[in-house]
């Protein structure tokens, strides 16, 4: 499997045609920094499950993340970008509907765990880090983000008497802006 070393300069296992699409990262990303970003992206996945994967695609589109020559190369394709962006927008709208189940329900929680894992693995793939550890850290972040986000939103609505719609919009802004901030710094 092609990968970059921590220095971001040496590529192993790349064929010449794939190598021309590969770009090294801006510099060596320290392991703990990468894991922090994986955890943060996981937390943001806990807030809005499809926002982080859509932003990862945007990161590939903008050239912040590099997946050429990897099994995640499909993230750089326009069709993936459009589909995930539309799904994320649909989730942002559906979250405001009264019949939407809690994010801690089995289906929502499962999606957040899987997509948190995916987000961590995607960041590690682009940065040349350890996929397994990054995926586990992404899952941990997704669990923290899911339950903390649920509790904070519930408390802001019930105890602080804020409008649920306003809190949901603020949560949307945090999820989108935070995801772009994390992905742009890999």
Describe the structure.
The structure is a single chain. The protein has 186 residues and is mostly helical. The protein has one domain. Helix content is 65%, strand content 2%. It has seven helices and two strands. The chain has helices spanning 16-19, 31-47, 51-62, 78-94, 106-127, 131-158, 164-184; strands at 3-4, 11-12. A two-stranded antiparallel ribbon has the order 1-2. Strand 1 and strand 2 form a beta hairpin. Helix 2 crosses helix 6, helix 2 packs antiparallel against helix 7 (164-184) and helix 3 (51-62) runs antiparallel to helix 4 (78-94). The longest helix has 28 residues, at 131-158. The protein is globular and about 50 Å long. The model is unreliable at 1-14 and 19-25 (pLDDT under 50).
Question: Can you lay out the helices and strands and say which pair or pack?
Answer:
Elements: E1 3-4, E2 11-12, H1 16-19, H2 31-47, H3 51-62, H4 78-94, H5 106-127, H6 131-158, H7 164-184
Antiparallel strand pairs: 1-2
Summarize the structure.
With 186 residues, the chain is mainly α. The chain has seven helices and two strands. The chain has one domain.
